[in-house]
Amino acid sequence: MRTARILLVLAVAVVLTAACSSAGSDAGDGTADATADATADASGDGTVGGDLDLTGSWRLDQGDGPAGEVEIIPTARVTMEVDAASGVTGSASCNRYSGTVVVDGSSVRFGPIATTRMACAPRPGAAEAAYLAALGDVDAGSRTGDELTLTGPDTRLVFTQQG
């Protein structure tokens, strides 16, 4: 029994070591990620290494989605922050949200979104519901300078980059 446990622990260690040593490297030497990060397109179209660059802080200026218009409420702005590891956080008008986003060229897909569960007044609550439904519908994006547009079959979200 003890031998079986030792073998199981060793097998798990080997699998984890192999997974860690190959993660994040296309060429096996770690240079692919660094090269992609360092090759921002000088044309201002927001691409890095051929992929749309969502990294940064964004404020929603206009939005429509499958649940209708996303009302822009000056005291309860919708924001989105995307980090270099494809994590996404922000304010959905009333609650905070977080999740992941995957970008492949101009294709954009948001992973499951988690939100806090604060009680919302009717207007921010409706804006939030419309925004979160729109995020789930996004399948593409484009960027011109400081303006980011995310689109889907029934969605158009226009953001301005902040600071």
List keywords for this structure.
ten-stranded antiparallel sheet; alpha+beta; 3 helices; disordered N terminus; two-stranded antiparallel ribbon; 163 residues; 36% strand
Explain the overall architecture:
- It contains 3 helices and 12 strands, in the order H-H-E-E-E-E-E-E-E-E-E-H-E-E-E.
- By secondary structure, the protein is α+β, with helices and mostly antiparallel strands.
- Strands 3, 4, 5, 6, 7, 8, 9, 10, 11 and 12 form a 10-stranded antiparallel β-sheet that branches. Strands 1-2 form a two-stranded antiparallel ribbon.
- 22% of the residues are buried.
Summarize the structure.
This protein has three helices and twelve strands; from the N terminus they run ααβββββββββαβββ. The radius of gyration is 20 Å and the shape is globular.
Q: Which range best describes the helical content: under 10%, 10-25%, 25-40%, 40-55%, 55-70% or over 70%? A: 25-40%
Q: Radius of gyration, Cα only, in angstroms?
A: 20 Å
* Low-pLDDT runs: 1-44
Task: Report on the biggest sheet.
Answer: 10 strands, antiparallel
What's the number of helices?
Answer: 3
Q: What is the average of the pLDDT values?
A: 79
Total number of β-strand segments? 12
Distance between the termini: 60 Å
Order of helices and strands: HHEEEEEEEEEHEEE
Structural class, judged by helices and strands? alpha+beta
